Amino acid sequence: MKQRRALMTAVCSVLIFIFTLCSILAPQSFAQSQAPTAKNAPGMYDSTKEVVLNGTISGVVARPKAGLPLGLYLMLTTTQGQVAVHLGPYYGRVAAEKGLVTGTTIQVRGVSTSFAAGEIFLARTITVGGQTLTIRSQNGFPVRPAANGTRGAQGTQATGGQ
Amino acid sequence: MNAKRPVVPLLCVVACALVLSSCLGSSSTPSTPLAVEFSVAPPLSDPLGTTFQVAAEVSNGSSVNWSCTPTGSCGSFNPTQTGSGTATTYTPPATVPPDDGAVTIMAVSVQDSTKEASANVTITAGGTINVTFNPPAPPPTLATSTSASLSATITSTVTNAVSDGITWTATCTNSAGAGCGSFSAAQTSSGGTTTYTSPTAVPAGGLNVTITAASTLDTEDDVTAVINVSTTQTSAFLCANCSYTYTVSGTEVSTGYPYTLAGVFTTDGNGDITAGEQDFSDYKFTTGNTAADTIEPGSAGISGSIYQFTADGRGMLTVVTNDVNIGISNGLTGTETFAVAFVSGNHALMTEIDGFATGSGSMDLQTVSSFSTSTLSDGMASNGFTFVVGGGTFSELPFAFGGVFNVNSQGTVSGTGSTADINSGGTVAKQQTLTSSGAYTVEDQLGRIQITLMSSAFGSVGLTGPMILNGYITDATHVKFIEVDTNVGVSAGLAIGQGAMTGTFTSATVLPANASYVFTAFGSVPDGAAALATTFTSDGVSKLNNGSSDVNESGVPTSGSVTGSYSVDSSGTGRVGISIMGNTIVGNPGTADNFVVYLNGGSDPPLALELDQYGVTTGNLFSQSGGPFALTSFQGNYGLNYTQFAYDAEAEEYVIESDTSGQGLADGAGNLLGTLDINYPGAPEPDQIFTGAYSASSSGRFTGVLTSSAYEGLFGTETLNFSYFVVSSSQVVIIETDDEAVTLGLFQLQTPPF
User: Do the chains contact at A161 and B733, CB–CB below 8 Å?
Assistant: First the structure.
């Protein structure tokens, strides 16, 4: 447990550094790539504001700093700077097998959204190695990656106490 | 002559006396009454261990005796007799006297014991003394002649508060002569243990015994718990020849995909399920419109479908079915294990707690024994049912479908008075048509029905209907539904009857002015998962005011104010549109979050679903009562259940879902203590002790924490932050307010006997 904590502390330190860097760089890069449209507020996905980013994965982050949504992130280095690409809750287990690893060049379609703690990019589709992965639906809801033998589906309505 | 002689000198004496009296005046009248007054008055209050001086003067300069009440526990004087104006020293007792430490000090004239001066002094502990129960908390139930181990701890800086220990008492009324029970030790050290043994006999219906653990130094500082003593053994919590409907929804561990189940089983009152059936649905194995799975009977509480409970109302329920698709990932084919927390003898909260799946739901005593197509019409030609089912579509979208279906006496859903709404991945359709395809079928006498719902809602959002629902009837106004078609998706939900209120809901009768509410929503958003809990009041016309909310959007918690508006459908269906702005799920204070609520006219909280592109959430509108709220508004034994969407610090990945049920004691002073049955996906952790804290707000939005060593494994911390929204003293909504997880749940006051 102590080793895990030490590891987590180290990982978190790196993440904090990365996200601090992102918070400095990302606004400028998105301003260039998205202008003149406004950014979405937290929780909103406006497909009319979708843009396409091309870049190389410089890191895969399992947990962001406090104040940003939980979920898997790809740190994407673009010509405009580094962007935190949010894949949502369902890709933690399969990102690597889908080719989403450090050093890979990808194309991402999605929208930028702002939180008090920083700005992130909600990916709707990712093209990697000639294959396009659907990360979110047209309205922005996370889609589960298809699993073998399943019909493929996303989202469920949790009960949260009855 | 001789007789007249004495008269003259007598008159002279009297005259002289009168003259002398007039010359001297009244100040020296020897008949002035004796008086006693404090010349050094005692203080209004005095901490234990602190002496003070007090003195009294007597009008004639004589002495006084010093005394106090309550005799024997009020302290002492040295000396006990003093001259007029001479001080004595008062020493308070070793412990705070009863009646909040009230002591009366008296200075009584030695010369005339009817003359005295008195003053009231409150003896205080001189600081805060906190008494809390140690785990496990006193159980909410005990059978007669049964023992429970109890322990409590004092925390205080007051001298002797800790060392004096705990005094235990058991009180009750109407014990029918058998007493309230006894303790192996009525006095223990702080942290020490005593054994409470319940009385040998109790009146019919049971006996509520209040257990008090009080500071011996100051018995006003205490903690209490109520134990319902009855003749019921824990094995009989599920009664003999009783049937229970149940439903659970959640996530399969191996696939990460949603699943639902619903069913009914019959119990023998002694640990075995004797019969039953269940429908199960998931993406991979959904069997569509086929016969229900059979529940295999238990054997002597050892094998097969069995159950076992403890005195706190928690228990484990094993359901063995003939469905080979259940349990295949954990090697227990067909077997489900549920953790159950009883709220009453009729209702329990459930969590699936095995390696196959994690989910939450509920279980209810079935009170109808004969079923036909007229069961849901309840003798009425037109009987409305509000409903919401939620899940995921086969076209890869989260969805929720709800409305009002109006059952007529022939067992069909009348289009008249029926309405439907749907949110499929943020695409919504409102106030759509809703009918059934012919009469619904009554599958068997276990209360299973099948209804085929036709609605324009499906086509409006790109889905293909109809939706075929299997329902398990609890009573004439409650049905648990599970979708069994291959058209729409994997979903489940509840239907609540409107009874005589059907078709009568108008804007003049719903959401009355100044009524207060707690509103909840929980589900999917573009960032992942989101939870909302908020209070607000209605103006009786169209506005919602004074809202105070917490939102947790994928681990980003926010709190703030909420305002809104509502509109009531003119057709009388009970459909109410609600728009709220401010701190809501949408995340933009200037953009409205839109919901629809279906009123049922009864005590069940109306069902709600979100109708906008920002989220696919469902929830409830709770009528709030009992305000203004204080710590004592959250007091007693509660069953609980919550669902979490969390980041797993150990696995370094986002966990799809974790579910928990349990039981806890809220002491009304801001402390929680209880036991959780947690299903971290694939790693169930039953019987985990938790503590908690909460601070009050008059609005009913309390804040606090829950702490358990079991949290460490998943979250990397033992303490999670929560807001507690007090609906009433019997229901409290919880929402997590940190960046560890998105959580929504409910505490429900336990009302034994179970």
Answer: yes
Give the C-alpha distances (Å, rounded to integers) separating B253 from A32, B229, B390, B683, B710: 42, 40, 19, 10, 19
Q: Which helix (H) or strand (E) holds B725?
A: strand B719-728
**A90/B555 touch (CB, cutoff 8 Å), yes or no:** no
How does pLDDT run across B580-605, given as a tens digit for each residue?
999 999 888 889 999 999 999 999 99
Which range is most confident: A19-33, B10-24, B135-149? Answer: B135-149
Q: What is the pLDDT of residue A37?
A: 38
CA–CA distance, B403 with B454 (Å, rounded to integer): 12
Q: Do B653 and A93 touch (CB under 8 A)?
A: yes
Contact A150 B284 (CB under 8 A): yes
Look at residue B48 and tell me whether its pLDDT is greater than 50: yes
CA distance B221 to B240: 43
Give the rounded distance of the alpha carbon of A123 from its chain centre. Answer: 6
| Spatial separation of the C-alpha atoms in residues B661 and B23, rounded to whole Å | 94
For the full predicted model, state whether its pTM sits above 0.90.
no
Mutate to test the interface with A, among B496, B554, B659 (most CBs of A within 10 A): B554
Give the pLDDT score at B255. Answer: 80
Domain layout of chain A by residue ranges: 1-34, 47-158
- The confidence score (pLDDT) of residue A162 equals 41
Asked if B3 reaches chain A (Cβ–Cβ under 8 Å), the answer is no
- Return the percentage of chain B with pLDDT > 70, whole number: 94
CB contact under 8 A, B553 and A140: no
- In CATH, which of 3.40.50.2300, 3.40.50.300, 2.40.320.10, 2.40.50.140 is domain A47-158? 2.40.50.140
Which chain B residues in 342-381 lie under 8 Å from chain A, judged by CB atoms?
Answer: 349-350, 359-362
Instruction: Residue B599: name the closest of B687, B485, B515 by CA.
Output: B515
Interface membership of B733 toward A (CB under 8 Å): yes
Instruction: Give the minimum alpha-carbon distance from A88 to chain B in angstroms, rounded to a whole number.
Output: 6
Q: If 0-12 CB within 10 Å is exposed, 13-18 middle and 19+ buried, where does residue B731 land?
A: buried
Q: Are B187 and B230 in contact (CB under 8 A)?
A: no
Half-sphere exposure of B290 (CA within 13 A, CB side): 10
- What dihedral angle (degrees, nearest 10) is formed by the CA atoms of B643, B576, B702, B707? 0
Provide, as residue numbers in chain A, all residues whose Cβ is less than 8 Å from the Cβ of B399.
155, 157
Nearest CA in chain A to B492: A157
Query: Which token pair is B658?
Result: 């974790």
* Banded pLDDT at A93 (limits 50, 70, 90): confident
Partners of residue B400 in chain A, C-beta under 8 Å: 157
**HSE toward the beta carbon, residue B176, CA cutoff 13 A:** 12
Average pLDDT over residues B100-114: 95
Q: Is A153 on the interface with B (CB under 8 A)?
A: yes
pLDDT tens-place string over residues A105-115: 999 999 999 88
Output Rg (C-alpha) for chain A, integer angstroms.
Answer: 16
What's the pLDDT at A10? 44
- The pLDDT score that the predictor gives to residue A43 is 63
In the 8-state DSSP scheme, what is residue A49? G
Shortest CB distance from B528 goes to which of A63, A88, A151? A88
Closest CA to A49 of A110, A106, A108, A107: A110
Nearest to A41 among B555, B587, B652 (CB): B587
- Mean pLDDT, residues B173-183 taken together: 89
List B residues 9-68 in contact with A (Cβ-Cβ < 8 A).
none
B586 to chain A, any CB pair closer than 8 A? The answer is: yes
Q: What value does the mean pLDDT take over residues A129-141?
A: 94
- pLDDT the model gives residue B650: 64
Q: Where would I find the H helices in B205-322?
A: none
User: Phi first, then psi: what are they for B100, rounded to 5°?
Assistant: 60, 30
